[in-house]
TrEMBL record:
KW DNA-binding (keyword) present: yes
Matches recorded under PANTHER family: HTH-TYPE TRANSCRIPTIONAL REGULATOR GALS, LACI-RELATED TRANSCRIPTIONAL REPRESSOR
Source organism of this protein record: Gordoniibacillus kamchatkensis
CDD domains the record matches: HTH_LacI (cd01392)
Protein name as it appears in the record: HTH lacI-type domain-containing protein
Domain HTH lacI-type: residue ranges: 2-58
Length: 348
């Protein structure tokens, strides 16, 4: 186990400075940046502050009453409210916590967790019985939290098999969407995706499902029809517009988008270029957010049971908190195709 001396050497400060920060000694000023680096070192080196160690020992001896509180860490600040995909998930989390006699102690963004003396300080100052993580998170932070309390992840694709996860099968979702477009007579199908890999194509499972469906149908994957967005709505609009302008004689007849928000922006670009949807170009999104039903035309989408994901995650977490489950389960919720006007047209 790391010591104060190890932390001091790692950061390049004195042992006394490290001690003052960890013990919340305000008798002498410590530069905020230095304070931040010390807490980061605590996390990265796995150091257990004495207060935390004493707390854990006391818990084991006294078996105190549960706090009946759960914490939540989300990938980005905007996910905490009004996000069309994540807000229903958090609503499900909140409702199931209340129905189970628990309350939400806090919702912190990942950036807040990175920039403050959290999670070490957070676990001490705000006692919780478990934590729900929504979206991607730094593995060292995830490991640190799990050493103290049970953790369940939602929408985490990089945590591996060591953590309990509630998610959906993104490969199957991509295949379902493309198979629907193929059934409507489309043979020239493009993709609007998120982040790209080294070869310039999207590197996430929905794109993999898109590729598999094309391969199984013996259809070509044309790199010119791949729109990379970095998960930004404005890029989806701009890059789709650029693709349509650069190859007017070689356009796809349908597009699968990795999310409804990306699809809506891409549809606007197509409409501005005078293309009829779905007669000239069809669109299918993924998520089935509430607004998908009210776009012009209404957007076909793959429905993901978002509210239910939140409730399932809470039930899983309570199973770990109350000792009913120890193995890290990976639960994948079902999905279903919702056909609306944006793709409900059969090409002949």
């Amino acid at each position: 186990m790391s010591t104060l001396k190890d932390i001091a050497k790692y950061v390049g400060v004195s042992v006394s400075t490290v001690s003052r920060v960890i013990n919340e000694d305000t008798s002498r000023h410590v530069n905020p940046e230095t304070r931040k680096k010390i807490w980061q070192a605590v996390q990265e080196l796995g150091y257990e502050p004495n207060q935390s160690a004493r707390s854990l020992v006391q818990q084991k001896r006294e078996k105190p009453k549960a706090s009946m509180q759960v914490g939540c860490i989300v990938f980005a600040p905007q996910l905490r409210q009004h996000h069309p995909y994540f807000s229903p998930i958090l609503s499900g989390v909140n409702k199931q916590l209340l129905d189970s006699g628990y309350t939400m102690a806090y919702i912190h963004s990942l950036e807040e967790v990175r920039s403050q003396p959290i999670p070490g300080k957070l676990l001490l100052e705000t006692p919780v019985d478990g934590v729900i993580v929504v979206g991607e998170i730094d593995p060292p932070i995830l490991d640190y939290i799990r050493r103290h309390v049970p953790v369940v992840g939602i929408d985490i694709t990089s945590a591996g098999t060591d953590y309990p996860i509630v998610d959906y099968n993104r490969i199957a979702v991509g295949k379902t969407a493309v198979q629907h477009l193929i059934s409507r007579g489309h043979r020239r199908i493009g993709f609007v995706g998120g982040e790209t890999g080294q070869d310039g194509t999207p590197e996430e499972p929905r794109f993999t499902g898109y590729k598999y469906a094309l391969m199984e149908a013996g259809l070509p994957l044309n790199p010119d029809w791949i729109v990379e967005t970095e998960w930004k709505v404005d890029r989806s609009y701009g890059e789709m517009l650029a693709m349509l302008e650069s190859q007017p004689e070689n356009l796809p007849t349908a597009m699968l988008a990795a999310s409804d928000m990306m699809a809506i922006a891409a549809m606007r670009a197509a409409a501005e270029k005078g293309l009829r949807i779905p007669e000239d170009i069809a669109f299918v999104g993924i998520d089935d957010i509430e607004i998908a039903e009210y776009t012009s035309p209404p957007l076909s989408s793959i429905h993901i049971p978002k509210f239910e994901i939140g409730t399932i995650a809470v039930n899983m977490l309570l199973d770990y908190i109350q000792g009913r489950q120890q193995m890290p389960l990976n639960i994948q919720v079902p999905h279903r195709l919702i056909v609306r006007q944006s793709s409900d047209y059969t090409r002949t």
